[in-house]
# Entry
Amino acid sequence: MMGTRVAGAVVAAAIALSISAVPRDTIDLVGLGIVGAPLAALLALWLTPAVASASWRMAAAIGLAMGVAAAYLGVVEVALLTLIASLLGFDPATGFGSDVTGALFIATVGLPYGTFVLPITIPCGLAWALIVHPFVHRHASPSRPP
# Structure
């Protein structure tokens, strides 16, 4: 089952990184794909067994939930990365005297702005569920004798 989880995580990370392929004249999404790949992989690692045993409708619902969760957890991830960068001696360029204040500001103000990436994260979550479901469902179910 761990191999199945890893396969689901790899598919989710690949989908998140594929966002970087959007033409630059439309919108610059490279950062979103790079920051979203680890988060998508972690969510997929956790949700792949649920998708494996689910129906198509439930798999789509899980993908939708994954997309919604990824939008808001991504804001928390950016805030934590800002805090970790300041603790490691890097300048996160928040503009605050205290980097903890900057991280809290990003988390507090950024959470409502997580809504703006929902049109990107929800289709990614749905794509992940609809790609992983048939693969995992086919390979996870025991073969029946003829």
